[in-house]
Design goal:
59% helix, two-stranded antiparallel ribbon, binds zinc ion, 2 domains, alpha+beta, 4 helices, elongated, two-stranded antiparallel sheet, 4 strands, single chain
């Protein structure tokens, strides 16, 4: 146990990106076993190699930066998904627009016909059908 600990000191070890890549590799491997699609098997293998490489890597700054970028992408994806679900749950009563000026998302009650929309964030006006 001590030897392993010594060996791993100064190395990146496991992080969230490594865990996520392992999960993807596992899923690819399952699909590969079900379908026999060789490319998926190779991709799963390559991912495992990448995970091992990152675990034993001594370039901590680079690995941490990769992990940080992954975490920020992941939280963006989670936020987009939550917003999408919220929009879906309100889509019966509201119509959603994206402001052409600042890409702000706007919510308008449905059933008002053709309307002029003014973006509260940047003041841009544009037409839409609710
Ligand atoms: Zn705007």
């Amino acid at each position: 146990m001590n030897r392993i600990f010594e060996f791993m000191s100064g190395r990146n070890g496991n992080d969230q990106l490594g865990l996520a890549l392992l999960v993807v590799a596992l899923i690819l491997n399952i699909i590969f076993r079900m379908t026999g699609m060789y490319l998926l098997g190779i991709a799963a293998m390559a991912l495992v190699l990448i995970v091992l490489y990152r675990m034993f890597s001594r370039d901590l700054a680079k690995r941490r930066e990769e992990n940080r970028r992954f975490l920020s992408l992941w939280s963006d994806a989670k936020r987009s998904f939550a917003e999408w679900r919220l929009r879906r749950s309100q889509s019966r009563d509201y119509k959603f627009f994206v402001c052409p000026g600042c890409h702000n998302r706007l919510r308008v009650p449905r059933g008002k016909g053709k309307i002029q929309i003014t973006c509260p964030k940047c003041g841009q006006r544009f037409g839409g059908k609710s």
